[in-house]
Amino acid sequence: MNPFSSGTRLRDMIRAIRACKTAAEERAVVRKECAAIRAAINENDQDYRHRNLAKLMFIHMLGYPTHFGQMECLKLIASTGFPEKRIGYLGLMLLLDERQEVLMLVTNSLKQDLNHSNQYIVGLALCALGNISSAEMARDLAPDVERLLQFRDPNIRKKAALCSIRIIKKVPDLAENFMNPASSLLKEKHHGVLITGVQLCTDLCKVSSEALEYFRENCIEGLVKTLRDIANSPYSPEYDIAGITDPFLHIRLLKLLRILGQGDAGASDCMTDILAQVASRTESNKNAGNAILYECVETIMSIEDNGGLRVLAINILGRFLSNRDNNIRYVGLNMLMKAIMVDAKAVQRHRATILECVKDSDASIQKRALELVYLLVNESNVKPLTKELIEYLEVSDQEFKGDITAKICSLVEKFSPAKIWYIDQMLKVLSEAGNFVKDEVWHALIIVISNASDLHGYTVRALYRVFQASTEQESLVRVAVWCVGEYGDMLVNNVGMLDIEEPITVTESDAVDAMEVAIKCQRLGLTTKAMALIALFKLSSRFPSCSERIKDIIVQNKRSLVLELQQRSIEFSCILQKHQNIRSALVERMPILDEKTFSGKKAGSLPTAVSTSSIIPCNLPNGIGKPAAAPIGDLLDLSSDDAPPAPVSSGGDFLQDLLGVDLSPASAPSGTSQSPKTGTDVLLDLLSIGTSPSVQSSSSAIDILSSSHDNKAPVSNLNGLASHSSLSANATSPASSAGMMDLLDGTGAITQKHEENGPAYPSLVAYESSTLRMTFNFSRQPGNPQTTFIQATFTNLSPNVYNDFLFQAAVPKFLQLHLDPASSNTLPASGNGSITQCLKVTNTQHGKKSLVMRIRIAYKTNDKDVLEEGQINNFPRDL
Amino acid sequence: MIKAVMVMNTQGKPRLAKFFDFLPVEKQQELIRRVFGVLCSRPENVSNFIEAESIFGPDSRLVYNHFATLYFVVVFDSSENELVMLDLIQLLVQQTLERCFKNVCELDIVFNYSKIHTILDEIILGGQVLETRSTEIMRAVEEISKLEAATNAISFIPKSASSWLSR
After folding, report:
1. What would the 3-class secondary structure string for A710-768 be?
2. Closest CA of chain A from B57, distance in Å
3. Chain B contact for A204, CB < 8 A?
4. A95 partner at 20 to 30 Å CA-CA among A294, A470, A731, B65?
């Protein structure tokens, strides 16, 4: 007999499923079982109904669809036997989906069972109702449940209480019917009934303010007394969990007291004594005791103010933080996070313990503690806390460094008492975890440095020191490189020494060495290298003695494989060689970066004022005077002030990065694309302006340069450069590459091949019309006479270009055809080019039948679709 | 309110799943899978709490405990006390299942899952804690067993009596 027929026992089915080695095997077993069960359902099999449903429940747990069993549940529930009913209700709770019609059908059975003489059947019905009741069922059955709240057996009373919770959640209007019976449950002695009764009252308070008032007036004293009794009760083993008398009941009571005390000073007053007693006398060496303390703390924090109790509560949480159990520390931190809103001062007292938790071995505790520390920081304690966090940063796990760095940066930015402190802290963070900071962080640092004009010397020397120590942290290297480029002279001359500084001797060539290291270091990214290149370029005018060496380094990079570096080097060396007279003006120090603009950008808003005033000097007539240095410097520095309001989101443009802190992710691409005059483009590019508001101003930028230079040579020179690049750009465009491939690779290679490898066949004009010609060239591989390679060449005989050119072919069954993609889909007019496409034909009846092919060619000309069709019968015989 | 109780083995096979809200079976399976995905990558010696909001939506917390080859997981909302939920798992496993099955193991749960459901229904009803005294729970389960046996039932039978099934 098939072991998986409907006759299998439940245990056998489970065994069979467990024996499956693969998911596919399991699916097969389940499919067979389900089919058998469906068959049994269709036959209305009575004997095995509850066995089948038990199986279905198991199958459901494994995640297979079992909806077809829902009606079987109803049948079992309606039967008389206890085992059938039990399985029926179990199945109902598990298999049911939200289909209301099934629920409607079951309502009647439930009503009968709620009134059954067997209390266990009543229990089953209450359990099912409490788990799945809909609003309609709740309305229909509420009176029965209400009556059962007074049932003689406590097991039914407690189930009825929880069932009532479901009912009032589904239909809050029914709450008032349950208020009285619920309050009488609070006087029960049976713990199970008490727990569920308290829970029912809690939920009544949540859905009905009337109930809340009612319980406040009538029940607080009773609840306080109950809680006191349990708290003081001697050890009773039956309720005991880890030495504490019924922690569940404690917690339910505390929770209800919390709801009653919240927002009511009188009620809160009634419970302070017992809360103080629970808070101070509960044993805290076990989880259960701590659970009670935890609940008690939450109640104390929520009810109306009582200063003394709150301090007690927060001290309990402080003790939690030094508990050995991770769970206790975890909930302690969670609760402190809430407590900080209520009483920040009291939480501040536990700062040291919280800081210890930042160093916890459990990552989720670390994370919470860090959040909490972050909330604790204010102007007065930012220095010691930052110090602690930075010290911890040095030893923290790699995964945690990102989080902690972000928090430190945000704190330093928010509460920094002085610029020098800000710079110091940021240098520490960057040198410790610079690879974990976001770009905004080091951008912001550069802005702050730029604005702290009295600290430029100090900063560049400090950065030079840490740079010398390590180049591991890339964002640190970037800031260092930027500062050396800008303030290199201060580095060498020890300008603006502070008292706290140790003197340092850096020669000009040392500084250039450092930049060279940054350019050559393999580990550093493109942005950093490009920044170093710019820094070198800037240094070339600051350090005349090194200018030859700098030129050499820049020239070396002309051969860089990275396009951006190559291009910059070419441009810079061009300026160094041919434009000495403007160089110093070009590499002027950047003007102070505007903090507001930056923070505005960061906040996602547009710069408020668009000033064009600094552009004005650009309108100087050609050839007159020396242009003011400022506007050029301005242009070079991508001055944000001149930028048109630009979308902030763009970002990521290399040009912006290249100049360090770009303030305007503006229209560099639009600047380079708007004008067909390549000279303008190159100059724009060269100066990395890109932000010029109009074509007019960009062309005046050329005016400035050429005017200062008196002749057009550089422009034409650059023009030449540009045309070079445009030529190569053309060469890579798809159209001409197709042409080139056609000329060089395609025919050449293949014809050569078949001359070498096999008998040559004459090429064939396979198809010709007044507008189009198609030629076939044949080749074969030796030893494989069945397969022929055909190269089709299409030529346009009309004066119009064909677009969307598509060649299709069909062959009879004894042939197999494979089409490669065509070289292009555009066919130039008047035979000025062609499209080629390779075909592979395999003749399975080689020697008996010769090739034959139907073709169809579709294309567009003058916006009209054209279709040409034909048949090719004149293939060479022996193909 | 308790949202779900799940038991799965260390391979991620569900062994018991009870959701106290309506959820389609595919969704249930997905949740079990995602919970397992988090559980199996938990290091040792960390807390028993997991951020559950990404899996179960806002206002949900997750407590788990690991016994031999099984994970016991309880998902609940902010109206429940996290620490006492941990005790609830203790109550279910060590004070109830342990007494029912003497050295309870994964196989007991696999082959007696309808009994496990009955036990669970005596501890949690509609997402609320029903009874916390293991003696009460045991007594209720015993009574039900007796009723089953009295009517010569088929599917709800202790392990030792399973030979009755072979009719």
Report:
1. CCCHHHHHHHHHHHHHHHHHHHCCHHHHHHHHHHHHHHHHHHHHHHHHCCCCCCEEEEE
2. 19
3. no
4. B65
Search chain B and give the residue with CA nearest A88.
B114
| Interface probe with B: pick from A6, A8, A9, A11, most Cβ of B within 10 Å | A11
Q: Do B114 and A57 make contact, defined as CB atoms within 8 angstroms?
A: yes
Q: What is the mean pLDDT of residues A185-212?
A: 92
| Structure tokens given for A253 | 């009571």
Q: Do B126 and A82 touch (CB under 8 A)?
A: no
Nearest to B154 among A50, A159, A252 (CB): A50
Domain ranges in chain B?
2-155
Distance, CA of B126 to CA of B20 (rounded, Å): 6
ipTM of predicted assembly, 2 dp: 0.89
Strands (E), A73-145: none
Decide the pairing of beta strands B124-125 and B128-129: antiparallel
Q: Give backbone dihedrals phi and psi of B64, rounded to 5 degrees, phi first.
A: -135, 160
Q: Which residues of A touch B143 (CB under 8 A)?
A: 120
A44 vs A32: CA distance, rounded Å: 18
Copy the structure tokens of residue A182.
Answer: 């619920």
Q: How many residues does chain B have?
A: 167
Q: Judge whether A382 and A388 are in contact, CB under 8 Å.
A: no
Q: Report the distance separating Cα B79 and Cα B68, nearest Å.
A: 30
Chain A / chain B CB contacts < 8 angstroms: 182
Name the A residues in 249-268 with CB < 8 Å from any B CB.
249, 251-252, 255
Distance, in Å, from the CA atom of A271 to the CA atom of A299, rounded to the nearest integer, reads 10
Nearest CA in chain B to A367: B51
* Contact criterion met (CB < 8 Å) for B144 and A86: yes
CA atoms within 13 A on the CB side of A318: 16
Residues of A in contact with B26 (CB under 8 A): 63
Min Cα–Cα distance to chain B from A287, Å: 7
Residue A789 — very low, low, confident or very high, per pLDDT cuts 50/70/90?
confident
Q: What is the pLDDT of residues A464-507, one digit of tens each?
A: 888 888 888 888 899 998 998 888 888 888 877 787 878 788 88
Nearest to A590, CA basis, from A545, A535, A645, A643: A535
Residues on chain B touching A162 (C-beta within 8 angstroms): 125-126, 128, 130
Q: Is B151 on the interface with A (CB under 8 A)?
A: yes
Reported as a single tens digit per residue, the pLDDT across A65-119 is 888 888 888 899 998 889 889 999 999 898 887 666 778 888 999 999 999 999 9
Whether the CB of B108 is below 8 Å from some CB of chain A: the reply is no
Give per-residue pLDDT as tens, A467-477.
888 888 888 89
Residue A402 burial class via C-beta count within 10 angstroms: exposed 0-12, middle 13-18, buried 19 and up: middle
> pTM for this structure?
0.66
- Average pLDDT over every residue of A282-286: 81
Cβ contact, residue pair A159, B82, below 8 Å: no
Q: Which domains does chain A have, with CATH numbers?
A: 413-602 (1.25.10), 761-872 (2.60.40.1230)
What residues have CB less than 8 Å from A217, skipping those under 6 apart? none
Query: In this structure, are residues A279 and A313 in contact, taking their beta carbons and an 8 Å threshold?
Result: yes
Question: Rounded to the nearest 5 degrees, what angle is found at the Cα of A626, between the Cα atoms of A620 and A630?
Answer: 80
Residue A795 neighbours by CB under 8 Å, 6+ apart? A772, A773, A774, A775, A827, A831, A834
B11 touches A at CB < 8 Å: no
CATH of domain B2-155: 3.30.450.60
Please, what is the end-to-end C-alpha distance for chain B in angstroms? 43
Q: B136 touching A, CB under 8 A?
A: yes
Residue type, B62: L
